[in-house]
Request: fold
Amino acid sequence: MTVYFLCVVLLTMGLYCLVAKKNIVKKVIGVVIMDYAVNLYLIIIGYKTGGTAPVVEPGMGERALERFVDPLPQALVLTSIVIGLGVLALMVSMCIRLYEKHGTFDMSQISKLRG
Amino acid sequence: MENITPQLYTLLVFMVIGSIVAIETRNLLSAVISVSAVGFALSVAFLFLGAPDIAITQLVVEILVLIILIRGTILLDNTAVELHRDTLAVIVTLIFFGLILGFGAMIFGSRGFPAFGEPLMSVSRVYVMRGLPETHAANIVTSVILDYRAYDTMGEATVLFGSILGALALLRKDGKVAKKEVVPA
Amino acid sequence: MKGLTLIVKTITDFVVAFIVVFGAYIVLYGHLTPGGGFAGGVIIACAFILLMLGHGKEVAFSRLGERLAHVLDSAGALAFLIIGWIGFWGGYFFLNVFGRGEQFRLISSGMILPINIAIAFKVGTSLFIVFAALAIFRRRSFRSMIEDELS
Reply:
């Protein structure tokens, strides 16, 4: 139970970094931390005590197949990790463009909508 | 290995401490390196949890995240400016934390939370038992994402394509200088 | 001299070939051992990014031109869709209509191997192009921006 609680703590810390910091790169770091927390939570759900990785070897009987960890959350997390990489590339290119246009990373000055 | 809870707790505490360092430090380069340390610890945690496929992917993706973040920030403004504490943000974060714990207790309070180490596996039992005879793929995770659920993988490839297209469109040429002719009348 | 120092260039020349071979191994054996198209594609992209960091972008573009990378990217995505559409003739979308072969061999398991190769092409060249765009993008210096604002 404490394991799930620590995952929620990690998610909340990522959210705090996203909301409370003014530097836009810190906000991107907050999104990355939230990504890690969600992926870790999904894999922890599928873990079986004393289980092995879901790769079948030649000569495995039915008994060994019963000891596999859950492969379905792993399929979801594989998708999620690669999509997180694509979204991060887009966010960093937006940061570079904002710095190019406004000269600073500070969000409170960027959002003032100067003409 | 039979009991991985001590190693898992150690890695989780290390990740929380690394996140605290990444959030609070003022130098941007230190923050980026701390986040990458969290990512590498996450890859080791995946290895302990019986997911070698995910550990390989997380490791190489973490290397690329580090390269992209450093390229995005190293040549530019290198320190963060923090003047005052934003109380509204802290209150919002605490409300969110309470809501997550409250909803979790409400959903799982009556039936009991599924204990750590005993997954339900109501759908995956079919995939594990019939994976090798039907698809002849020894890696069951691959057979799930490329045979039983290939439609989701097509969606993922599309999302990756779209986001890379957006990033290329943003970085296309040098930023234009604001035209001098547009003078406020 | 573009790129980094001579030591880095020598080691890069030595190591890039091994990285590409390792990435190809993870892609091709994705249905037998852990790995698959996504991890292998990212590893191949890392090899080309190492070439660009060590030698400068001209050498990297002489190995894998920009137009060829765009073509391979789109070809990988199209190949994925075409393989899915072939299954449509058998019954439903993404039905595995190729031959299964024996178990635990390299050429087996129907359409999983071609899809792994297509995904590796797509992911690898996409990430190489994005990094090339990030590296080429030249920022205007802060001083010239201040001069533009004051004038």
